[in-house]
Amino acid sequence: MIEKIARNLRLLYLVQIYAWKTQLAYRVQALVWLINFVAQALLTFVFISVMYSVSAGIPGWSYFEMLLLSSSTIMMMGLVNYFVDIYNIGQNLLAGDFDAQLARPVSAMTIMFSNFNGVTLVASFLTGLAIFAYAASHLGLTLGQLALFALFFGMGTFIVMLFLIVLVMSSYKLFRGGAWVNWVTNTLSGASKYPLSIYGTVGTLIFTFLVPMGFATYYPIEAVTGKLSTYAIVAVFVGMLIFIFALLRIFSHLFKSYSSGMG
Amino acid sequence: MHQNMIGKYLVHARFIIKRRLAFKLDMALLFGLQIISPIIMLFVWSAVYLATQTNSINNFTLLQIATYFFVVAAVNSMAPDISWGILGDIKTGGTFSVMTKPLSYLKSVVFAGSANFVFDAMTIGAPILILLYIFTGTALSAYSFALFLLAVLIAFALGMMFNIILGYLAFFIVETAGVINIYYFTIDFFGGWLVPLNLFPQYISSITSVLPFQFLYYFPAAIFSHAITSAQAIGLLSVAAFWLVAIGILTWGVVFAAKRHVDAVGV
Question: Which residues pair with B60 in a beta bridge?
Fold first, then answer.
């Protein structure tokens, strides 16, 4: 069991090393992309700062709480886009390029997470983390609160990753295409930078169950800023476990139906 | 003779429109994607106005700010996006294959961009504005509407020239994808896509007011949402004229210099 885990982690590590070496072979290009991702992440910071400078902001959410929420979305999307390359996965499904990868003695999930190429997206995550740290220090979050956030954020981000993989695999299986998944995800991620409560009950349900981005951002922030009762925190935790279990089952089912090129 | 010279590019443009018409699901999806952002902004700003308990923030009512973001989405849907195509052509030698035909590469990409502009205006831009009128009743006088159309054309012309410059930069620095993305960040920030420029602090809005990027989103959206008066819009037209000429000269210079770098196998 331990040997199996180590083998999977080793492959992920080697893929990282190779991807970074490839990227750093073109240093100027890598630098331009890094600047680009930092700048894109800062746009949200600017937007919220402008909003709170000209108004009272969003009801029930202070400036720093909003920064926590929006920066966690930036971090989440940075990690998701880093590890889940929807375009690559789609192309591999169409061309049957998973054949060679299946020969490796690693799990199907490891294969999915090792199909990426945008390593400079780490800049997006790190910029989000810097904004998060800035806001967290102003709010005086304790280590316990940060640990709770890290647990919920990690589980929530994993849910979003699984959700996208399942979505893109289903799309390619049904329609032989899935570029729309990327467009829709990036557009909808904009919505999760703000409290789900502003979208009303229907919006909250959509971003919790239909597009589960709320698990990675909204609920973790609500939990650490005291907006959720202990009962609700436990309910969210259980809900996330159920989601992970269900998505893993669907993924396993879809991957078993992979039948090489055009499969 | 002149008609014949343009005719071959019109055939190309017609082909592009026919090809896009073939992908009806893409059309619906692009429309949906363009309309999501302003809907999110509508929810966000509705909450903000509710919390602030005011009818006006920096002279913007909620209706005006909502109108602003929907018009920005409409203008954004029509914005030229040819730099990626030029970049690909230059890297793979596609520019040379066009030159083997009796065609000018630059004219062919300009006509292709114009065809996409017309198509997007009819299938996304105009429907968004019609929906806006139906739901909000926002209407313009004939004079203001003419100014708005002129602003849209200025946005298109400037966007087209920026795209040509960015695409042709590949002749000199090969990989311009990152630079193109930085351009999009710049116009999002300084062009008024993020927030109306007059919501920025004074020191930032004084910078944005002299840059050309304001004409890409802010200018047409501000006219349509009545954030600026017709007299102010006329005043801004002289600034737009200056930038059209300046960037036109820059575009010509870049294209002229790039022609010396053309070869058959890409750069």
Answer: B57
State the residue for tokens 């992309």: A33
Chain B residue at shortest CA distance from A32: B178
Asked if A29 reaches chain B (Cβ–Cβ under 8 Å), the answer is yes
Q: Which residues pair with A249 in a beta bridge?
A: none
What is the average per-residue pLDDT within B140-154?
93
Query: A215 in a domain, yes or no?
Result: yes
Q: What digits encode the pLDDT tens for the residues A88-117?
A: 888 787 777 777 777 778 888 888 888 776
Q: What is the mean pLDDT of the segment spanning B90-94? A: 76
**Token digits of residue A17:** 């090393």
Residue A244 within any structural domain of the chain: yes
What is the DSSP annotation of B74-101? Answer: HHHHHS---HHHHHHHHHHTHHHHHHTT
A179 touches chain B (CB under 8 A): no
Chain B neighbors of A55, CB-CB under 8 A: 48-49, 51-52, 54, 57
Instruction: Determine whether the interchain pair B37/A39 forms a contact, defined as Cβ–Cβ distance below 8 Å.
Output: no
- Report yes or no: A177 at the B interface, CB cutoff 8 Å: no
Looking at the complex, report in whole angstroms how far the Cα of residue A44 sits from the nearest Cα belonging to chain B: 9
Q: Is residue A261 part of a domain?
A: no
pLDDT bucket at B3, cuts 50 / 70 / 90:
low
Angle between helices A63-83 and A122-139 (to 10 degrees): 160
A&B contacts, CB < 8 Å: 84
Is residue B172 within 8 A of residue A29, CB to CB? The reply is no
> Cβ of A262: how many Cβ atoms within 10 Å?
10
Name the residue among B37, B48, B54 with its Cβ closest to that of A57: B48
B49 vs A190: CB contact, 8 Å cut-off? no
User: Count of domains in chain A?
Assistant: 1
- Other Cβ atoms less than 10 A from the Cβ of A178: the count is 23
Q: Which of residues 54-73 of B touch A (CB under 8 A)?
A: 54, 57-58
Chain A interface, mutation test: which of B25, B29, B40, most A Cβ atoms within 10 Å?
B40
DSSP letters of A66-84?
HHHHHHHHHHHHHHHHHH-
ipTM of the complex: 0.85
Domain for residue A207, yes or no? yes
∠ CA B197-B199-B203 to the nearest 5 degrees? 75
The pLDDT of residue B138 is 77
Query: Vertex B139, ends B135 and B140: CA angle to 5°?
Result: 155
Query: What residue numbers bound the domain in which A155 lies?
Result: 2-256
**In chain B, which residues have their Cβ closer than 8 Å to the Cβ of A46?**
189, 194
Short-list B139, B162, B176, CA closest to B251: B162
**Is A174 touching B (CB cutoff 8 A)?**
no
Region of B178 please: left (phi>0), alpha (psi -120 to 50) or beta.
alpha
Q: At what angle do helices B24-52 and B126-136 cross, to 10 degrees?
A: 40
- Largest Cα separation within chain A, whole Å, is 58
